[in-house]
């Protein structure tokens, strides 16, 4: 179906931060499949884990215990705020599950009237009818009938607006610590702490969508750790599978209590193949020194992007980001920069608010960051030349 405006290029193989066409043209991948390929392409540990599991067992369904689920859930619980984990296949499913968990919590604790969720303009939580309504972007909602009810939208970063809209029907506040699709808008530590306080005072839940920011992308395992807070429920996907479809809903014991047998489920969610891959991703990301290395690479990338802003002040108007989720706000259409970068064989990703995202794999080397900045510089030079 014609749902994608695809770029006219086909990749045949990848290794590390590089992608290659059948003709042998090599591209530096600074998009990571939209922040998915956390460990780059063809990572040996992921290949070994998937190959080994593929020779044993692919699928049994959730009618039975799945050893890989129990192992990966235990590791996620040990490394995070969570006590419970539900496995699914994607970020949209994880966000949908988080919404259901938040509403169901109030139902089983005697407050079924609490079902509305406060969300932010500029957000993106997926493509299901409920997650589209949660984001409230008219462009994505058009033509799909009445908007799913139950969401109150406020400006991102505005604590007073959140406080003003919380009422007796409010169940939760749901935000991204960094809005990726919305333009790499970073929620400050004070903003996240303020949300945690507002939710505690109102007796409602704080739900974080860390689909794009999670699993090391921010320089911490999860972005909210920079603010030294914990959510009640969190949606995870993208990086946790490193390219294999895998999502998860993480929650405290209290917040998870409404999801009893029969209230939620997934046929493929938590299948043995996905669990083996997720386990391998955590082996790498949780290894001593790995996240500190991501923070150092992020600083190097940020410095390089700042140099681009100095070099092209009329074209690059702002540098944004957290960790290896970075963006440059540009004075032209982001698609123009994406195309010019592709001509220099470096892949980047457009976003809202006139921003181009730069999302290298977490395993990117310093010399590859330098190479990426140089290629982006040539791309921006071409755009500047064409405008004069």
Description:
The protein is globular and about 65 Å long. It has 388 residues and is an alpha/beta fold. It contains twelve helices and 17 strands. The longest helix is centred in the last third of the chain and has 22 residues, at 290-311. The strands form four sheets. The protein has a seven-stranded mixed β-sheet with strand order 4-12-11-10-7-5-6, sandwiched between helices. Strands 1-2-3-15 form a four-stranded mixed β-sheet.
How would you sum up the global shape? globular
Helicity, in percent?
Answer: 25-40%
Unreliable stretches: none
Rounded mean pLDDT is 97
N- and C-termini, Cα separation: 39 Å
Q: List the helices and strands in order.
A: EEEHHHEHEHHEHEEEHEEEHHEEHEEEH
Task: State the helix count.
Answer: 12
Q: Tell me the fraction of residues in β-strands, as a range.
A: 15-25%
Q: Count of DSSP E strands?
A: 17
Structural class: alpha/beta
Described by strand count, sense and barrel closure, the largest sheet is: 7 strands, mixed
Radius of gyration: 21 Å
User: What strand order characterises the main sheet?
Assistant: 4-12-11-10-7-5-6
List the helices and strands and how they pair.
Layout: E1 13-15, E2 18-20, E3 26-29, H1 32-35, H2 44-54, H3 67-79, E4 84-88, H4 91-108, E5 116-120, H5 129-135, H6 138-141, E6 151-154, H7 159-165, E7 170-175, E8 178-179, E9 185-186, H8 189-202, E10 205-209, E11 233-236, E12 247-251, H9 272-285, H10 290-311, E13 316-322, E14 325-330, H11 334-343, E15 346-347, E16 349-350, E17 355-358, H12 366-387
């Amino acid at each position: 179906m014609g749902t994608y405006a695809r770029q006219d290029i086909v990749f045949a193989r990848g290794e590390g931060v590089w992608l290659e066409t059948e003709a042998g043209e090599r591209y530096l991948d600074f998009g990571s499949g939209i922040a998915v390929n956390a460990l780059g392409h063809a990572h040996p540990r992921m290949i070994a884990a998937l190959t080994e599991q593929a020779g044993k067992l692919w699928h049994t369904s959730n009618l039975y215990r799945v050893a890989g689920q129990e192992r990966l859930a235990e590791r996620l619980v040990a490394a995070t705020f969570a006590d419970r984990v539900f496995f699914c296949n994607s970020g949209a499913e994880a966000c949908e599950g988080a919404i259901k968990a938040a509403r169901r919590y109030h139902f089983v604790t005697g407050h079924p009237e609490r079902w509305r969720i406060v969300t932010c303009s500029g957000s993106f939580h997926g493509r299901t009818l409920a997650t589209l309504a949660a984001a409230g972007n008219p462009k994505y909602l058009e033509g799909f009938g009445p908007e799913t009810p139950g969401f109150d939208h406020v400006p991102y970063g505005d604590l007073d607006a959140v406080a003003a809209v919380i009422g007796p029907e409010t169940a939760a506040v749901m935000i991204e610590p960094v809005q990726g699709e919305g333009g790499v808008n970073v929620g400050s530590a004070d903003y996240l702490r303020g949300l945690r306080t507002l939710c505690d005072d109102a007796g409602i839940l704080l739900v974080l969508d860390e689909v794009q920011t999670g699993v090391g992308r921010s320089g911490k395992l999860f972005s909210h750790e920079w603010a030294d807070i914990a959510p009640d429920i969190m949606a995870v996907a993208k990086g946790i599978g490193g390219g294999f479809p895998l999502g998860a809903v993480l929650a405290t014991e209290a917040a998870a209590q409404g999801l009893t047998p029969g209230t939620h489920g997934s046929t493929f969610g938590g299948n043995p193949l996905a669990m083996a891959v997720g386990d391998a991703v955590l082996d790498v990301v949780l290894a001593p020194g790995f996240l500190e290395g991501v923070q150092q690479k992020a600083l190097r990338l940020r410095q390089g992007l700042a140099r681009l802003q100095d070099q092209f002040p009329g074209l690059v108007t702002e540098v944004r980001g957290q960790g290896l989720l970075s963006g440059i706000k540009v004075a032209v259409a982001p698609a123009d920069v994406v195309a010019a970068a592709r001509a220099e064989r470096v892949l980047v990703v457009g976003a809202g608010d006139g921003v181009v995202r730069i999302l290298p794999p977490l395993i990117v080397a310093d010399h590859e960051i330098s190479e990426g900045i140089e290629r982006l510089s040539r791309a921006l030079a071409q755009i500047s030349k064409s405008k004069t």
